[in-house]
Amino acid sequence: MADPLQRLDWALVRSYLAVMDAGSVSAAARATQGHQPTISRHLAELEAQRGVALSERTGRGVRPTAAGLEALPAARQMQAAAEAMARSVSRGREATRGTVRITASQVVATWLLPGLVAEFQRVEPEIAIEVVASNAVQNLLRREADIAVRMVRPDQGSLIARKVGDAPIGAWAHAHYLAAMGSPSPPADLARHRLIGYDRDDAILRGLARIGVVLTASDFAVRTDDQVVYGQLIAAGAGIGFAVDYWAAQWPALRRVLPDLPVPSLPFWLTVHRELRASGVVRRVYEFLAEAIPRHLAAPSPLPRAAAKVKARVLKQGASQRRAGDSP
Predict the structure, then answer these.
(1) Do 87 and 25 sit in the same domain of this protein?
(2) Which residue range forms the structural domain that includes residue 25?
(3) Do 214 and 103 share a structural domain?
(4) Which pLDDT does position 80 carry in this prediction?
(5) pTM across the whole model
(6) Where are the alpha helices (DSSP H) in the chain?
(7) Which side of the chain, N or C, has fewer Cβ within a 10 Å radius?
(8) DSSP character for 302?
């Protein structure tokens, strides 16, 4: 038997079901926050299309006719299908809305993530992003963050980690510094230069020792354990330091020294809790970062030209003051 309600407007069927459930047109209008004339018109239009009376008035309200009773199961099916579709659309809408918290080191959060976040929000404006800039490993197990960008692979079994790229590292110095002090060659020549190093962290010393360049903390003319300050010291011309290429590319006045120095690259791991991977918004951010990070590492974007000019002018003024012997 053909479905008696095939090819009908759902709005008409919805009004019909509302009246059957409420028992009267006025009660249906109150239940659906609709208007009585509209519901009455829907009933009349539905019956005209079917060519049969589906309801009848009684002293107590409205009840279905025999034809109306026959049509009720099909109408309920339409109702269930419409509600299922509404739930599906709602879930899809929820998957594009929400907040995702990303944690990364100070350098990554300062110099890499801002461009990625701006690019992401141009295509996903309804997903809010929170950035936690910290060199301490935020505990994804305690949900202190949703996604972590790290240089080491986590060993917790409940975390999913994907290696998304390697960031080349080199020795960098400002053009002003090199003009005054010359370029080191060979690598052992680094010892006669003003080097920028870490204070309590011996990562640079250990890394150089592995490639045959043996130095001590006393060889560093300037020391800091703050990665952002470390980078700013290189950019200001305080000496030669070691930095990832994607950061150095944003400073037009920086020059790479000892380009053949075999400094190991820095691995990038994208990590998320296994349960959060099922979240629509977290998954969208995770997959975007997995695609965008290697792209940005391979072709780092320089600072906007205007910003680069401002920075260059500030650095030039600072160098002029130093040459003039200005004191604080």
Answers:
(1) yes
(2) 10-94
(3) no
(4) 83
(5) 0.60
(6) 10-22, 25-32, 36-50, 66-94, 106-111, 113-123, 175-181, 203-210, 227-235, 245-248, 280-298, 305-323
(7) C
(8) P
